[in-house]
Design brief:
Elements lengths: L1 H11 L3 H19 L14 H21 L3 H5 L6 H5 L6 H16 L3 H29 L4 H31 L3 H15 L4 H12 L36
Helix pairs in contact: 2-3, 6-7, 6-8, 7-8, 8-9, 9-10
Length: 247
Amino acid sequence: MFALSGTLDALATVPRVALDLWSFCCRLRWQVRRGHPTAVKSPLSVRTPTMRLVVRSLVSLAAIASLASGLPARAQSGSSVPAPERVTTQSNLNYDSVMRIMAEGDAAVAAQKFPVALDKYDLARKSFGALVQFHQGLAGSFSGIDVKIANDQRQRAAQAAQGRDQAGYKLALLYRRLNQPEVAIPLLVQVVQSQNPTTDLGKQAYAQLYELGFTSLPYPRSVDGTQPAPQQSPAPQTPPAQQPPAR
């Protein structure tokens, strides 16, 4: 099947010159058979096996040359694998590129271009989420096989997760600014779940949930509900009363 397909492709790409040559030889052979007065009889007539072999060789060489001219340039240069930096630097599978997308969202917010900012933040959040899954998958694949690669992929996954949560938090703030709390609240909950309430970003996300009325208690919890409760130090121990010396 593959040989037949290659043959058909070769015939389809034969240059016009080779086809004209074959047509001329066929006409010449017909004239020789008919005894046409203008036909030239020579040892290299198309009626001889030598001439037929020459014509077929020319056609085959023309087809091969045509196929070779269509090969990609990288195959001729001998380099078939591009550098990794050229593949990922300008794509959404590169951490720095996604950070630039999030920065474009910040610039759009400053310019009051909220629809553009929503698209940028959402794209950054989804791209970071994809990076987290990819790096976590690679870390699991190399677990127990190569410790350095597994640890490197875990670090990259954690870095991408931080960027994802930052983009999600900014997206939630923008939705809240646009009076769409029903969209902001799920994003804030995801940030708290991912970050842990003890981190700075987790605390900020929970504070937004509290301001929106989604939660009834602030965090960190305090006595009056406005400030964290001060840590109480243990009461100092009073020394025992001294008894007067016995007389």
